[in-house]
Amino acid sequence: MSPERRPLVFPCGDVGLVGVLHMPSDPAGVGVGVVVVVGGPQYRVGSHRQFVDLADALAAAGFPTLRFDYRGMGDSGGEFRGFEDIGPDIEAAVAALRLACPGVRHVVLWGLCDAATAAAFYARNQSVAGLVLANPWVRTAEGMARSYVQNYYGQRLLSRDFWVRLLTGKMSVLARLRDFLADWRTARGSRSGAASTSLPERLRASLEGFPGPVLLLMSGDDLTASEFDLHLKGDSWAAWRGRSQVSRVDLPGVDHTFSSRSGQRQVNEATVHWLRRLPR
Fold it and tell me: Which of 232, 241, 275, 242 is nearest to 130 (CA)?
């Protein structure tokens, strides 16, 4: 039987936000609840209903889960804001979850892509018990170029289709070479200047300031995850990635939004397993 779904409308400033709360069949004694922060611009259902499926799975495992539309998205009012400016929306959703489920003592934020980064920015100075970060967004031109050089081009050279298209004249050698050289030059440029205010460094600073447990979900077939992983392997991230509170689950062959049934199942199971280890 599917968990109960309750529609909620709650305030964020002078704007009403719309959400859906997925409730366990027996909410008594529940200590941990989850707020799903949706990457944008999209609404609370997510690509191929991924957040509906996730919220159902978490509620079935005993964790009340709220997914919601932040301002300017879906059914919520107000103007659209970028992911760096949705802290008040997340705060409103956390308060709504606590109000609807008085037994929830610890709130976990679950975010994909730029929502993962937004959740980390919010959690640094707030009373959040944990973070689930799926394929965090740290996109820069240099980082994207490095990811292409180290991942995309190598895979293409091993692809039979690539060589067939190249040798039969269906692909321009000069055009592909120009693309590669442009990406290579951009990637090299990223090593010459270390901007302390860059998005990756701001995310690192936020995570270092968050003392709670973190679960990283990393898709194997995703350039966003690959770009984040390149930063994560850097020296400046060594202290954070070495923390005992940081757990990581790699999902080989899974795309950015876990669109396959296998990918979604792995994400749901990994999240439930991690949540069950948290104190109630």
Answer: 275
